[in-house]
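Hello Y.,

Per our agreement to keep a running log of every chain we model this quarter, I'm adding this entry. I've kept the format consistent with earlier entries: sequence first, then predicted structure.
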Amino acid sequence: MVDTQIRSRGIKDARVLKAMETIPRHLFVEEALMDQAYNDNPLPIGERQTISQPYIVALMTEALELTGKEKVLEIGTGSGYQTALLAQLADRVCSIERIASLANGPGSCSITCMPIMWRSGSGTGRTAGRKNPLLMRSWLRRAPRKFRPSWWNSLPLAAG
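Predicted structure for the entry above:
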C-alpha cells in the first residue's frame, strides 16, 4: 500500500511513511471489510461515515509537517486510524468523537496509548474503556498557539 498508493504519488515525509507502514489499517475496519482495508478507496465504518483512502490520510498527515513536539487536536475520530497515525508523529493527540458507536468501534481497541471520549449533543458522555480521556477526528488541525482555545492546556491527555 505505501509504495504503490502513497510514495508513488509524491508523499515524501519519512515519518509519515513509516507510521503508515507500522499501523495495521485492517484493525480499524469491521471484520467483514478487513480484506479491503488496504485498497485505494474509502470504506464504510458505520453511521454513514467512512475511513478515508490511504493516500488522502497520508496527504493530510504530511501537510501538518509534524516534528514530534506538537499537541494535535483532531475533531471527529471516526475509525481511529488517523488518530493512531498522529500518535506516532506528535507529542500528544487530543481527539473527540460525538458518535458513541464509532468511539467504541474496531479501532478503539487498537489505540492502546489513548482512550476515546464521546460526547452527546447535550454535552454528556463517558470515556470508552480507558482511564485518561483522549478526545478524537474530522478535519485535523495543528492549532498555532495564538489560535488555541483557553482550555487547550487543561485537556486530559494520555502520554503517547
